[in-house]
Design goal:
The complex is a heterodimer of chains A (111) and B (113). Chain A is mostly beta strands and 111 residues long. Helices cover 0% and strands 54% of the residues of chain A. Chain B has strands spanning 5-7, 10-13, 19-24, 31-38, 42-50, 53-57, 64-68, 74-78, 87-94, 103-104, 108-112. Classes of the chains: A mainly beta (111), B mainly beta (113).
């Protein structure tokens, strides 16, 4: 079993929809959680970074962490065609060096 | 502020050859990480360098090696290339006291024929 599981999709939504992206993990030592966005043939771009359980909001993006369930989510409000990309969750233990990535969810937002 | 840069953008090699990939971290970042993103496998951790030393490596054979220079730039070498080494190789950097926040470069796409 991989330490980080993420549904690869693809996920297709109409412009303006609320998007929910999720990851589950098995290693209870993970304390740092990130979401990256990766456009085709580009490197991942850090979107959100959270440490504790709860919600963190940044513009249209909200990251949610539930450590008791080992479950993290990224919500995108008012989705735009420019949000079409692959979204990768990543996590590490304290002082970690190697990020453990999910395989990524491909999102398509149609006009 | 300039981001992480990598060169070359694309690299085509044949089986058995050696490949050298280069990375320049964000100014002020001392840690450099290498990841392999192969089709269908997701990002896999390869190597971590900090202050010129190799700090840890992932589950890859010894023919994957590298080094970090005094200016914190880094080089990844892959010897005896195999077809399955074809992938996007990503370099990331982080500040010394913020190891979990990694910023990625655009990657080098290595194709082994």
């Amino acid at each position: 079993q991989k330490e980080v599981e993420q549904d690869p999709g693809p996920l297709s939504v109409p412009e303006g929809a609320i998007v929910s992206l999720n990851c589950t993990y098995s290693n209870s030592a993970f304390q740092y959680f990130m979401w990256y966005r990766q456009y085709s043939r580009k490197g991942p771009e850090l979107l959100m970074y959270t440490y504790s359980s709860g919600n963190k909001e940044d513009g249209r993006f909200t990251a949610q962490v539930d450590k008791s369930s080992k479950y993290i989510s990224l919500f995108i409000r008012d989705s735009q065609p420019s949000d079409s990309a692959t979204y990768l969750c990543a996590m590490s233990p304290p002082g970690g060096y190697a990020l453990n990535f999910g395989k990524g969810t491909s999102l398509l937002v149609t006009p | 502020e300039a981001g992480v840069t990598q060169s070359p953008t694309h690299l085509i090699k044949t089986r058995g050859q050696q490949a050298t990939l280069r990375c320049s971290p964000i100014s002020g970042h001392t840690s450099v990480y290498w990841y392999q993103q192969a089709l269908g496998l997701g990002l896999q951790f390869l190597l971590w360098y900090d202050e010129g030393e190799e700090r840890n490596r992932g589950n890859f054979p010894p023919r994957f090696s590298g080094r970090q220079f005094p200016n914190y730039s880094s080089e990844l070498n892959v010897n005896a290339l195999e077809l399955e080494d074809s992938a996007l190789y990503l370099c990331a950097s982080s500040p010394k006291l913020d190891l979990d926040t990694q910023y990625f470069g655009p990657g080098t796409r290595l194709t082994v024929l």
